[in-house]
Amino acid sequence: MTEATDLDATRTAYDTVAVDYERLLRDELDAKPLDRAMLAAFCELARVPGAGPVADLGCGPGRVTAHLDSLGLDVFGVDLSPGMIAVARRTHPDLRFVEGSMTALDLDDGALGGVVAWYSTVHTPPRLLPAVFGECHRVLAPGGTLLLAFKVGDQHLHRERAYGHEVSLDVYWTPPELVAGLLREAGLVVDARMIREPDESERPRQGRQAFFLAHRPAVA
Question: Is the CA virtual torsion 157, 61, 52, 4 positive or negative?
Answer without folding.
Answer: positive
